[in-house]
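Meet my pick.
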Amino acid sequence: MPSPPDDRTFMLRALELARLGQGLVEPNPMVGCVVVKGGQIVGEGWHQRFGGPHAEAEVLAAVGERARGATMYVTLEPCCHHGKTPPCTAAVIAAGLARVVVAQRDPYPEVAGNGLKQLAAAGIDVELGLCEDQAADLCGPYLKLVTTGRPWVIAKWAMTLDGKIATRGGYSHWITSEAARQVGHYLRGRVDAILVGRGTAQLDDPLLTARIEDGQPPRKAIRIVLDSQARLASFSQLVSTARQHATIVAAGPDADEKDLRRLADAGVEVLPFAAATHQERFEQLLKELGRRKITNLLVEGGSHLLGTLVDTRQIDEVHVFIAPKLFGGERALPAIGGTGVEQVAEGLALSGMQAHNVGGDLYLTGRVRR
């Protein structure tokens, strides 16, 4: 049976509120909550920071007695266990709500439907599944981390109209406009970790920090370099600032012990992986980052690393900046290297594509269709 139009309106508002927690609550999920009585919103809120009150508890505390007999719209199943905060189901039951409408079930093992059962057992009318697809899209990174133990992989690159990320001489500063680069900094400011290959680290000598002029202070992402031989130069910005900004070098089994010690002495965390191939070491790195509860991993290239992501089907989301320029040349680096696909049908298909003009550049975003 379809939900009343007002139910959908209130849930969409809860989803809108939930998104305000992006970059602030991870590895927790983004959650929004709206309490309605007599057809009017009497309270609303969202999970605002990791370790802080959950959306439901914070809204109910503000609403007080007005919650009795009201309806709650929440984007994720209320938790029913003690973590950093008390269980939200206890607050919902104590508030005397008559009805709770939930967008999606929480797959976290200690919840996983038990929150809904507790509410129903307390005599609350519970409805599940309203705007479930939108809620799942919103919580994609959290859902992937909980169900697979791996981070959500965001691939980002800037290229020319003919698909080049550098000239034949290796120059890439700057392909896109300052406005486009500022969008890139905002993206860095909401992820947990940023990954590049050693080639990019060597050619561009990036700092890989989020430099945002105004607004919410950025999340301080861990900087990671895939460097099989552990030869990242000591004078590079990444190594020389490792004591100020957390930096990891993921090395291979053939890395020289002297280089491993050199990087460690500079404040770099060195993670040696024993796998023989680049792809296998990348798989091991993803597992380790998932173990550390890294929710969003931003991969900024270069061509070889992005090619590995495509070949191994590891990309979840893309952010691409296309400048109205042509470099040409067979030796100019393409955006994505690797082996590639043989048949058209084997290519990664994207959905939910959005396009924006940013400083004269085309900014495209989308998610890989599963």
About this structure: The chain has a mean pLDDT of 92. DSSP finds twelve helices and 14 strands in the chain.
